[in-house]
Amino acid sequence: MNPAASAQEFEHRLRQIGADRYHDKHPFHDRLHGGHCTPDEVRAWVINRYYYQHSIPIKDAAFMSRVEDPDLRRIWRSRIEDHDGTDTNEGGIKRWLRLAQAVGLDPDYVQSRQGIMPATKFAVDAYVRFVRDKTLLEAVAASLTELFAPAIHENRIKGLLQHYEFADDSSLSYFQNRLKEAPKDVAFGLQWVLDHADTAEKQDMAAAALEFKTDVLWAQLDALWNGYVEGRIPPGCWQPGDGLLLAKAS
Ligand SMILES: O=C(O)c1cc(C(=O)O)c2c(n1)C(=O)C(=O)c1cc(C(=O)O)[nH]c1-2
């Protein structure tokens, strides 16, 4: 049996997966953050990415349903509250719908999840299923893409503010809030994975889970690019002009 790598070496391995494979390297993000997306490309991104937002708390509830340690459940449940909201926090889903409105979409349309691309659904549903079915170690490791999310959120805030009229403190509050919320989740998740991946085999499983998650994110942007940049919109998916706020008002 191979010996486990040290915690430091293993953390380095996990971070290298992000450096090599995280979706900040996808050309769609360059296009979005560089101000080169058309309004409809931005709308297609907001609509499809909503499916991820919708599914994250479902994924975290699936995770919690399998946790027998009350301390771990107590720590994990703030992830659900961050998205669903509480009495004092409107939550990430509402903030995302504010972004949808700012780009001219009817939030009811976005929330209906009509017009989501098949690849988005398959990728995101695969993540929820992965967390439901795999070991807790793999489930926590898969969430560690969030190690790399603050940098992309910062770039996004900067790029959108610079290039798009819809961007302001209100429409971008989702990302501003994630900058405050994600570090606590990821510090806990990383330490948990480092503590629990105590054999070479478990380290390999955790690394593979993180790679799987980078695939989940990458596949969504490939689909978006194919559909809305290249113009090959799959049957039944959002068509420019659908679900606009303006159409509702008239
Ligand atoms: O905008 C992004 O690039 C991005 C990426 C990720 C991620 O790496 O999975 C998350 C988020 N945002 C995010 O906002 C979020 O709440 C979130 C939760 C999770 C997760 O796996 O539990 N990932 C992410």
From TrEMBL:
Catalytic activities: 6-(2-amino-2-carboxyethyl)-7,8-dioxo-1,2,3,4,7,8-hexahydroquinoline-2,4-dicarboxylate + 3 O2 = pyrroloquinoline quinone + 2 H2O2 + 2 H2O + H(+)
Signal peptide: none
Native species: Sagittula marina
Pfam families: TENA_THI-4
Database matches in SUPFAM superfamilies: Heme oxygenase-like
EC numbers: 1.3.3.11
Described function: Ring cyclization and eight-electron oxidation of 3a-(2-amino-2-carboxyethyl)-4,5-dioxo-4,5,6,7,8,9-hexahydroquinoline-7,9-dicarboxylic-acid to PQQ.
Any one GO molecular function term: pyrroloquinoline-quinone synthase activity
UniProt-listed GO biological process terms: pyrroloquinoline quinone biosynthetic process
Protein name: Pyrroloquinoline-quinone synthase
UniProt keyword terms in alphabetical order: Oxidoreductase, PQQ biosynthesis
Group of enzyme by EC: oxidoreductase
Gene: pqqC
Biochemical pathway: Cofactor biosynthesis; pyrroloquinoline quinone biosynthesis
Domain Thiaminase-2/PQQC, first and last residues per copy: 13-222
Family in the record: Belongs to the PqqC family.
Keyword Cell inner membrane: no
Origin: domain of life: Bacteria
InterPro entries, per database record: Haem_Oase-like_multi-hlx, PqqC, PqqC-like, Thiaminase-2/PQQC
